[in-house]
Amino acid sequence: MSEQPGIDPAAVPSGTGCAECESGQGAGWWMHLRRCAQCGHIGCCDSSPSQHASHHAAASGHPIIRSFEPGEDWFWDYQTENYAYGPALAPPAHHPLDQPTPGPAGKVPEDWERHLH
Questions:
Q1: Does position 1 have pLDDT exceeding 80, yes or no?
Q2: From 77's CA, which of 9, 24, 52, 67 has a CA 20 to 30 Å away?
Q3: What is the domain count for the chain?
């Protein structure tokens, strides 16, 4: 059960990278990763070419995400379009440290900066 609406602290991340990019949907690479605070879905940020995190929020009705980047622990609420507060979530708190940003390794085009939003 969630401690607050839109957040389930027990939900584990769906993986170490954007679920849709890794399954062949969209550009196949991301700038930064975001974690759905309700179900653990990992999607790419709105600066990324495919913006899968915000698409997941709209399609699922799960409004709150948390950064899935090392050293970042902020939450964002797509409904209020503002930062949010939340509890510690089930580990891991970020993608593997050896995973590059942008990522994943070998999938990022040389002109990646041209593709950012």
A1: no
A2: 24
A3: 1
